Task: inverse folding
């Protein structure tokens, strides 16, 4: 499918996905393969180049990931990064040692501009280092092409065999000219043309999907999230009405969200769209339940019960599609892409349903690439750039017992917040923002009347990865407008507070 391939050989470093993404940014398709994959398998894929990643280990440790020296005989260009650089030096009989001084963080590097990797890089450039071992002596045939105050071999190369190594991390943004270096490797050293585009991906995937599915049916569970929406759009482009999307609306989505999803898919795409409205059923199951984990469990299991019942009844004789994306499949460090981590995109199938096969059209794409495909396929901006929304929906934002009235109050308050954030342009700067209904009543005064009504909390965070998050510094005047409008426009709310807890110690969601 892809004529030019770069293989990123995974030795367990934390930036491995980033390396593959950066290569793709150069217009060259890259795949991550575990270091446990044998050299014949790698050779059979005929990559234009191979990148050894970093990793937390030391090459001296016999248990650390090593690789067959046969890889150096394939005649394929190799770039070693950090641990990968040390491994190259070690396997080719250079000398690796534990450095007297570890280097960590921004580091000044002096480069030799005669190296093809550094032709247009500043002679003194800033790179990101993170290592304790270092290359003390480059292997025979290698030239040292960069150094730092504490690292005599910050880069080395044997251009006759197209072996290159850098001790620093060109893939992270802290390395100021890292993209130039990676581009030189994939384009100038490996000879890639750099013409891989999302359009090619769409075209070749659509072709492959048609071939695989033939005249059979495909069923996909649509959540309204980015991944399943883009998978649906792609499948619709490939097989049109042979695709059935089942959208289980548990009634715990944001205001009008279910209608927006339905309108987008029915209006823009050729497919069978089945919407199942089951708020009542969910609320009945949740009656009297207050524990957050119990709520999660009930909502999650009900959701799949409803979904599988519909599939079992009508759509189980063809293929099953899901919106799994690349990061869902890669367990970094283990170097074993086949081990799948539990994720809402990957669904456990009941034993009595036997599909012809499972289709995951986005399984090789990163999130930003999934969004690009979504935009190219004409999905609305609001769906493509939708912020993360928990599977249990508003169920974990109504604290305590969930009732239809509480869901309605929360939906209205949340809609005001979203509207204001959109108007002031803050929407795109925020990783996630939403309203919470804690179930607290407070005293207020409206006109001459005493009120005793609901409190609404506003939560907004900025983050790169949701593992940690900062509460967002939204300007006071915006918060004032949000508060005034919620109290004026949403019945039964008489007070609004803003959550100023970061994660940790708080979590993003209140439950
Ligand atoms: P926390 O609250 O753990 O949230 O800091 C981190 C991110 O995960 C989302 N989240 C969930 N997503 N099912 C999901 O699919 C859940 O039960 C769930 N709980 C939290 C949350 O919205 C945030 O983006």
Result:
């Amino acid at each position: 499918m892809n004529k030019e391939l770069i293989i990123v050989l995974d030795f367990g470093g934390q930036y491995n996905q980033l390396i593959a993404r950066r290569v793709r940014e150069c217009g060259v398709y890259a795949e991550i393969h575990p270091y446990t994959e044998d050299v014949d398998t790698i050779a059979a894929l005929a990559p234009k180049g191979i990148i050894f990643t970093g990793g937390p280990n030391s090459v001296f440790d016999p248990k650390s990931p090593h690789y067959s020296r046969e890889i150096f005989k394939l005649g394929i260009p190799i770039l070693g990064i950090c641990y990968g650089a040390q491994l190259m030096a070690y396997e080719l009989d250079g000398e690796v040692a534990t450095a007297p001084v570890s280097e960590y963080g921004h580091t000044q590097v002096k480069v030799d501009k005669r190296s093809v990797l550094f032709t247009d890089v500043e002679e003194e450039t800033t790179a990101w280092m993170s290592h304790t071992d270092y290359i003390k002596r480059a292997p025979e045939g290698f030239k040292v092409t960069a150094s730092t105050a504490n690292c005599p071999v910050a880069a080395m190369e044997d251009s006759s065999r197209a072996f290159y190594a850098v001790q620093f991390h060109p893939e992270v943004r802290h390395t100021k000219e890292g993209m130039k270096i990676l581009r030189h490797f994939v384009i100038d050293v490996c000879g890639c043309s750099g013409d891989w585009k999302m359009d090619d991906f769409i075209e070749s995937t659509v072709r492959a999907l048609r071939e695989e599915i033939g005249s059979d049916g495909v069923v996909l569970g649509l959540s309204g999230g980015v991944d399943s929406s883009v998978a649906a759009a792609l499948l619709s482009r490939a097989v049109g009405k042979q695709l059935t999307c089942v959208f289980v609306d548990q009634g715990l989505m944001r205001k009008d969200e279910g209608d927006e999803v339905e309108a987008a898919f029915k209006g823009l795409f050729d497919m069978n769209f089945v919407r199942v409205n089951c708020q009542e059923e969910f609320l009945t199951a949740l009656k009297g339940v207050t524990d957050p984990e119990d709520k999660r469990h009930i909502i999650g299991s009900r959701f799949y019960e409803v979904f599988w019942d519909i599939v079992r009844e009508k759509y189980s004789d063809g293929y099953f599609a899901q919106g799994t994306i690349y990061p869902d499949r890669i367990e970094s460090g283990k170097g074993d892409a086949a081990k799948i981590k539990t994720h809402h995109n990957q669904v456990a199938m009941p034993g009595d349903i036997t599909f012809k096969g499972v289709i995951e059209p986005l399984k090789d794409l990163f999130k930003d690439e999934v969004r690009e495909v979504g935009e190219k396929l004409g999905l609305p901006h609001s769906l493509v750039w939708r912020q993360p929304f928990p599977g249990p929906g508003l169920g974990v934002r109504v604290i305590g017992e969930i009732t239809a009235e509480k869901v309605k109050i929360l939906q209205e308050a949340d809609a005001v917040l979203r509207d204001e954030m959109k108007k002031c342009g803050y929407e795109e700067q925020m990783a996630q923002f939403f309203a919470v209904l804690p179930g607290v009543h407070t005293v207020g005064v409206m006109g001459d009347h005493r009120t005793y009504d609901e409190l609404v909390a506003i939560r907004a965070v900025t983050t790169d990865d949701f593992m940690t998050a900062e509460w967002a510094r939204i300007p006071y005047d915006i918060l004032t407008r949000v508060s005034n409008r919620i109290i004026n426009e949403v019945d039964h709310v008489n007070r609004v507070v803003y959550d100023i807890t970061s994660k940790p110690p708080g979590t993003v969601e209140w439950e």
Summary: The pocket of xanthosine-5'-monophosphate is lined by residues 296, 344, 388, 390-392, 432, 466, 503, 507-509 (CB under 6 Å). The two ends are 44 Å apart (CA to CA).
